[in-house]
Design brief:
Chain lengths: 495, 125, 449
């Protein structure tokens, strides 16, 4: 039997224990629905409030978070999440407004959304923005739907190929797959740019468009970006920009100015919405002029112009050839938009540029400090992240071992095994919210680990050794598939 | 690496038995995929397949792969029990791990075991 | 420089290590004519100014706690959230962590999601729950993706009840536009009086999925057992979109034979928040787990023999399966799944049953009193849970405006989505509505001219 460090909430249950009680009913009683419509049993835990608090406190201590320390997970932009955001998004006026309230009663919400649309347009250089998508992948799907709708509206039905660089995030091909398009993989050249010859060969009148992350997942800004954009556009394709790496570009360059047609924002990466252990995110999408009519419905617009005495009346508008609705209601308003709005308002134009400049400085500083110890296959000035190889000549140490050993030095590991075009990739994104001391300690740890890999490789193979939990048996998890638990009294019947 | 000499092999690591029409994945492939946890046959008995058609989908703990028909013809048998025991693909890829049998069996672009072994070796470097 | 902890001297030292003279020199790869655009944005606010500015924006709304008495539901519900929920959500260890890719240092998130999955399977009676989706509407669209993948495109018809939430049906139409699906039943002018068996004639051997709602959009409680038997006989799967609060009282979708049970778990500890973020739950049978999108946590052991949890079956997800994946989903709604788990744990079995009973009792009191008013009546006769359709003597928009003038947020105006229901509003009542509020609603409507 496995050792149980913290029982599940079901195991902690004891029949008859009470947590929070509800008031007694103040209305005359009505008979319940007929018995054949009622459930016979509600097999849920019974605990006292203090038991619940201690259980979740215990669980929280098993986690490593940005509030605990350095979290250089590449492509995830694990920056510090300002505490003021947690207060503003919980203001009663935001918390307790219903999404279907008459617009006259929620002008504060709508003004915030309208301004947010305008700000994101200004930051990205796109004339249209939807706030509806719930996350990056959702925004990406929205973008691909709009690309498909654009070609369809022109009767251009032979376009079925999406060009995607080999360094792309897996969501790109998955989004394309959801529309039944085929994926044409475009290789990278030796400097980490899109291989122009391969691109040229793939560009024809069957191309839907290209999905390009720029800076790409190697952390490289494509040096031929204008050529790439022009080649795709010349064959009638649309340019999709994956905004996962926008933290490198605030006030540096606007994707709209570079000729992109559509891009999703990750408010949970670039604009400080906390990652929440895997969500909720928020994935607004910006589009060029030719895609504006296809934006999801509804958008926030001005219904009646105001003047210097009265504020305008904000409401909802539907684009002419909208692809439709991407989710119920209006996007991740409270947990997403309010936090990001607060963040952008507190930065202004200069503060936003600072973010990207320091994010890029921190990445280049770490790259410079690690260059002599680890192989960096695409070695030039990087943007907000860089990728190095987690392997050494003549050693069986792999990137995974280095990552696990970093936990013993109390750091969160970088992203492993991505992008796929680098062997044993370690993808490092420090973000702008780390100081030089932290970066130095992290670089020192990685240099020390490289020495350990030679002198005491078992330290790496057996890592982590100082954490509460060790490496997990993932094969057992996948083969035995224990995906839920039950109350102790139901265990035998349910299992 | 085990590559029985009575079988033919494809560049996408399927094996094909010209005598019985059976198809599966090679020992090299199961080793590359590591611990296989899911297999789904994508064709039914009686269905016609062409060379290169996806006939099965395989997932391991860290990879996912589609298996393609090495021969054209009619699916005469499918190893339906495989989905309950996906680990069979690791333990017995050429025996209990067979996936389907293809009747008629015109193959194209297949290698003998010596050529396949060389092809695998080249990829390990 | 708001959150950047680097001094000018440190910056200069770092630039020297990198080998460039200035920060601007790091951006030579960017086309010069587009480099460093002037952004036309308002100047930065300090924290104190931002707090005041956001406070003003928030207070220019009329909210359902301080200004309005709400009888509006239609997919988003005003419920009490125990204090414990937000106290725990504010733990930085939870909300500032990423997706638990490194299980050794993410057991808090992983065990919490495993427990959430367990709470949802025990609630719905299903065998498997994923770690959640964006919201109820997208979870329903993912049920369509599952069915499409399950039949590998060989069946391409979905039968959707017109009494599924209109916005959910819209989202399914958006999601499926690349699949070439045939849709049946999604007809707002259909006879809304007939029971779910009316859908049977639409189900055939091309049907991959039947989608119904429980209670339906009008609040009615149907037993879908017969419909499901019929669908199964024809080889189709059935997805029930369920309200989790209603499930605390009503027979489980699993006991009716449902293959997939999804829904919006916002009622479980998540504020109205003007529509999001919410929490889509997704539960199904174990046999469909490989076709299910989204993250999944499973139990295992670590090398030291400790029971522990990992993300499992990850090879079905987009980062490995790429264009062959069922869905492009990466994130779940992790923190909000935690909120739902906290809500269910803190109220516990009895507290949750009390919530469901209060919703039921108050809604029935309201329905009974409202239907006594001259010219008003209940539109449908079937049993209902905490929402019902009220037939009014005037267009719904006029009724709602009149109520709003009297400080009441009326029900959902059904005329927009159902042409036959011009004078009808969908009224929601929860434990938050006191008898006094219900009586006031009745009094005001009595006086409506």
């Amino acid at each position: 039997m496995a050792t149980v460090i913290e029982p599940t909430i079901f195991e902690l249950s004891s029949p008859g224990r009470r947590g929070v009680k509800m008031p007694a009913s103040d209305v005359p009683a009505t008979a319940l629905p007929p018995k054949n419509l009622l459930r016979s049993d509600l097999p849920l835990p019974e605990l006292a409030e203090v038991d619940v608090v201690r259980h979740y406190m215990k669980l929280s201590k098993f986690n490593y978070s940005v509030d605990d320390g350095f979290y250089p997970l590449g492509s995830c932009t694990m920056k510090y999440n300002p505490k003021i955001n947690e207060d503003t998004c919980r203001l009663p006026g935001f918390l307790y407004t219903h999404p279907l309230q008459p617009i006259e009663t929620v002008q504060g919400n709508l003004a915030l959304m309208f301004e947010m649309q305008e700000w994101l347009k200004e930051i990205s250089g796109f004339p249209g923005v939807t706030l509806q998508p719930a996350a990056g992948a959702h925004g990406e799907f929205t973008g691909v739907l709009m690309m498909a709708a654009y070609h369809k509206s022109r009767g251009d039905t032979k376009r079925t190929k999406m060009l995607i660089p080999d360094a792309a995030h897996g969501t790109n091909p998955a989004s394309v797959g959801m529309l039944g398009f085929s994926v044409i993989t475009i290789p990278s050249d030796s400097r980490g740019n899109v291989d122009l010859k391969a691109l040229e060969a793939a560009c024809d009148d069957t191309v839907v468009g290209m999905m390009l992350t720029n800076p790409n997942t190697l952390g490289m800004f494509d040096e031929n970006i204008e050529k790439v954009v022009n080649m795709v556009k010349d064959c009638g394709g649309l340019m999709y920009g994956d905004g996962a790496n926008l933290n490198a570009l605030l006030g540096i360059v606007r994707p709209g100015d570079l000729g992109f047609d559509v891009m999703h924002f990750n408010l949970h990466k670039t604009f400080s919405v906390p990652h929440g252990g895997g969500g909720p995110g928020s994935g607004p999408v910006g589009v060029s002029q030719r895609l504006m009519d296809f934006l999801p419905a509804p958008l926030v617009g001005i219904i009646e112009e105001g003047d210097h005495e009265t504020a305008p009346l904000y409401g909802f508008v539907t684009p002419k050839q909208s692809i439709g609705r991407m989710k119920a209601f209006h996007g991740h308003f409270g947990g997403g938009l309010v936090r990001s709005y607060t963040y952008i308002a507190m930065h202004g134009p200069d503060g936003l540029k600072d973010i990207s400049q320091y994010a890029v400085l921190n990445a280049n500083y770490l790259q410079a400090r690690l260059r002599d110890t680890y192989k960096i296959p695409y070695d030039r000035i990087c943007m907000h992240e860089f990728v190095m190889e987690g392997q050494f000549e003549g050693s069986d140490i792999r990137a995974l071992d280095i990552s696990k050993r970093l936990m013993d030095y109390n750091f969160h590991p970088p992203t492993n095994y991505f992008p796929l075009i680098v062997h044993e990739a370690l993808m490092i994104e420090p973000t702008e919210t780390e100081n030089k001391d932290t970066l130095d300690r992290f670089a020192d740890a990685l240099i020390k680990i490289a020495e350990e890999a030679k002198s005491q490789p078992e330290l790496l193979h057996n890592a982590p050794s100082t954490t509460q939990f060790g490496r997990m048996d993932e094969v057992k998890a996948a083969r035995e598939l224990v995906l839920c638990c039950w109350l102790p009294e139901n265990y035998e019947t349910m299992k | 690496m085990n590559t029985p000499s009575n079988l033919k092999y494809t560049k996408s690591d399927e094996w094909f038995d010209p005598a019985t029409g059976a198809v599966g994945i090679s020992d090299y492939a199961q080793n590359q995929l590591s611990d296989i946890v899911f297999v789904e046959l994508l064709v039914d008995e009686g269905e016609e397949v062409t060379v290169g058609k996806a006939i099965a989908s395989v997932e391991s703990v860290k990879a996912s792969s589609e298996i393609y028909a090495p021969a054209a013809g009619k699916v005469s048998a499918a190893n339906k029990g495989l989905s309950d025991k996906p680990e069979t693909l690791n333990s017995d890829p050429y025996g209990e791990g067979w996936m389907i049998k293809i009747e008629g069996g015109a193959t194209s672009d297949v290698m003998d075991s010596a050529a396949y072994e060389k092809y695998c070796e080249e990829r390990s470097h | 420089m708001t959150y950047i902890p680097i001094s000018p001297a440190e910056r200069d030292a770092m630039l020297k290590t990198v080998g460039v003279k200035s920060l601007d020199d790091l951006f030579d790869a960017i086309p010069k004519k587009h480099r460093f655009p002037e952004l036309n944005l308002p100047p930065a606010l300090t924290e104190m100014e931002a707090a005041a500015h956001l406070g003003e924006m928030a207070s220019s709304n009329e909210n359902v706690r301080e200004h309005l008495v709400s009888f509006l539901g239609a997919g988003a519900y005003h419920h009490y959230v125990p204090s414990v929920v937000d106290h725990m959500l504010r733990r930085g260890e939870f909300y500032t962590a990423y997706t638990p890719y490194q299980p050794e240092i993410s057991q808090g998130t992983l065990q919490a999601i495993f427990e959430y999955q367990s709470l949802m399977t025990n609630l719905t009676g299903m065998e498997v729950s994923n770690a959640s989706h964006y919201d109820g509407a997208t979870a329903t669209a993912e049920a369509v993706n599952l069915a499409y993948a399950q039949f590998r495109g060989k069946r391409k018809k979905i039968v959707m009840s017109p009494t599924v939430h209109p916005q959910y049906r819209e989202v399914i139409r958006t999601y499926s536009q690349g699949m070439g699906l045939e849709e049946a039943g999604d007809d707002a002018s259909a006879d809304l009086e007939v029971g779910p068996e009316a859908l049977m004639s639409l189900i055939d051997d091309k049907t991959m999925l039947v989608v119904v709602q429980y209670p339906d959009f009008f609040g009615r409680i149907h037993d879908y057992t017969k419909l499901i038997e019929d669908a199964h006989a024809k080889g189709a799967l059935v997805c029930i979109v369920a309200n989790p609060t209603a499930l605390l009282m009503l027979k489980t979708p699993a006991s009716m034979g449902a293959d997939i049970v999804v829904g919006e778990a916002q009622p479980f500890g998540i504020p109205l928040w003007y529509g999001g973020p919410y929490l889509g739950f997704f539960t199904t049978k174990k046999s469909y787990v490989h076709k299910m999108a989204g993250r999944l946590v499973g139990e295992t052991v670590d090398v030291r023999g400790n029971r522990s949890y990992v993300l499992t079956l990850t090879a079905r997800e987009q980062h490995i399966k790429r264009e062959r994946a069922t869905s492009n989903i990466c994130t779940n709604q992790g923190l909000l799944a935690l909120a739902a788990a906290l809500y269910m744990s803190t109220l516990g079995k009895q507290g949750l049953q009390e919530v469901a009973n209060l919703c039921y009792q108050k809604a029935h009191y309201a329905a009974s009193e409202l239907s006594k008013i001259d010219g008003f009546g209940l539109c449908f006769m079937e049993p209902f849970f905490h929402e019902f359709v009220l037939c009014c003597p005037k267009p719904a928009s006029e009724v709602n405006q009149y109520l709003l003038d009297n400080g009441i947020l009326g029900g959902y105006d059904l005329s927009k989505d159902y042409p036959a229901l011009q004078n009808h509003i969908l009224v929601a009542v929860t434990e938050m509505n006191s008898k006094d509020e219900i009586d006031t609603l009745v009094e005001i409507l009595k006086e409506m001219k």
